[in-house]
Specification:
This protein is mainly alpha-helical. It is built from 16 helices and two strands.
């Protein structure tokens, strides 16, 4: 039952059927499934002796509290309810996925679901791009002034529904689906791998091309570097990924748009980053309030880290970064499981798959406002599920919120804010 509810909630969140059938809007299917799934998850967790002590759970709860507190601090007492209503589905899907994915079989089902959704969106985008099917919903047109007073269509970009309605956001999701699809690889099974993995991966890569996302080039290069680092070494991996990125840009992957701090789109993003720094300066502890960024600037932050510290201050930013640090640390530990035991080796392989997807998401999030969307929390939840499987078998001990975690989190707060500041200052030189 919980597996069915989790898969259904994930599909509804990503496919946003309300846009296709507006008559469903009054029933709020995402919220309804979250309300049904949360008690089902708790009941299943207690029945199967799931450990609810993972640091990620406490940190995510702390972050959710910081979202509400950021609005209360701005003088809106009802902000707690608003934050719970908006962020509640992400919380519910996190808990549901963490408990569901505590076995390898269910881990694969969730991964297959996310991959299948990505393939569907790719097919829908290709139909819109080449045949005009629902083009008004799934195609974004970029206009450019070619002469004074005359605009011309210069680029058509595929996008998705709901929170994937920007081409860059869709590109990020397709990137995440690539390692999830690759997780089903089986050594020596050439025909199976070609049909079940090679073909879907080619489709996803073509979907990436149709988004014309420059951020996807960076994300794909980072993914390749992380994937081959163990074989080529750190230096070799980054050299190879840089060469691939340059090759993709030369091949017009991003639609022949310039990569310059003074290019209009990039300049607008840097202005948003600068505005985010000013918001943090005006309210350093609790920020300007959850989802209030555009009340203070015409554009969203276009950076998940900037969006977080601008809206929730250093308090919310601490919980959010702490969650990322804990998730990355645990995935790293799982990636070191023994390969001698087939069961451990399988869990280790899926941990490496999730680690690749997780860090690819973070790299691309530096250019996108993806702080609150469910994708990140689903990946972290799947990592928690693997951690639970390893804990039950006594394969490895996981540290809690120790001094190293605290030091790393605080250091990342300082480094990330400083990096944003230096980037903004670099543009003004």
């Amino acid at each position: 039952m919980l597996l069915f509810l989790t898969v259904t909630l994930v599909a509804v969140m990503f496919l946003s059927p309300v846009e296709l059938m507006p008559s469903l809007a009054p029933y709020r299917p995402v919220l309804a499934l979250s309300v049904l799934g949360l008690p089902a998850a708790l009941m299943s967790g207690f029945l199967h002796r799931f450990s609810f002590t993972a640091p990620q759970m406490f940190l995510l709860a702390g972050f959710a509290g910081a979202l509400g507190l950021s609005l209360v601090y701005q003088g809106w007492l009802g902000g707690l309810i608003r934050a719970l209503e908006d962020f509640g589905p992400a919380l519910a899907s996190f808990l549901m996925a963490a408990i569901t994915a505590s076995t390898i079989r269910r881990q694969k089902i969730l991964a297959a679901t996310l991959t299948a959704i990505a393939l569907y969106l790719t097919a829908q985008g290709a139909l819109a791009y080449h045949f005009g099917y629902r083009e008004e919903r799934f195609i974004r047109v970029v206009w450019q002034e070619v002469e004074e007073g005359r605009l011309e269509k210069t680029l058509r970009r595929v996008c998705g529904p709901g929170f994937l309605n920007d081409p860059n956001d869709l590109a990020q999701y397709l990137l995440i689906a690539l390692p999830l699809a690759g997780g089903f690889w089986r050594s020596g099974r050439r025909l199976r791998n070609a049909l079940l993995i090679g073909l879907p991966v080619c489709c996803l890569l073509y979907g990436l091309v149709l988004t014309r996302s420059r951020g996807a080039v960076v994300g794909l290069a980072a993914m390749i570097a992380l994937a081959v680092r163990d074989r080529l070494g750190r230096t070799g991996a980054w050299v190879m990924s840089a060469a691939i990125a340059l090759g993709l840009l030369a091949a017009n992957f991003g639609g022949a748009r310039a990569l310059s701090l003074r290019e209009q789109s990039i300049a607008g993003r840097l202005e948003a980053w600068s505005a985010g720094l000013q918001m943090l300066k005006s309210s350093p502890l609790f920020g300007v309030g959850f989802k209030n960024f555009t009340d203070h600037h015409e554009l969203t932050a276009h950076n998940s880290f900037v969006l977080c510290f601008a809206e929730t201050g250093m308090v919310g930013y601490f919980f959010w970064l702490g969650l990322l640090v804990a998730a990355g640390r645990d995935l790293g530990i799982l990636c070191q499981l023994s390969t001698a035991d087939p069961v451990q080796a399988e869990l280790r392989r899926w941990a490496r798959t999730l680690k690749l997807a997780f860090y690819t998401f973070l790299v691309t999030s530096w250019f996108l406002s993806r702080t609150y969307i469910p994708t990140l929390y689903l990946l972290i939840a799947m990592g928690v599920g693997l951690k639970e499987a390893a804990r039950r078998n006594g394969w490895v001990a996981f540290p809690g919120l120790d001094r190293k975690w605290l030091t790393t989190t605080i250091l990342l707060q300082f480094v990330s804010v400083t990096l944003v500041y230096l980037t903004v200052r670099l543009r003004s030189l």
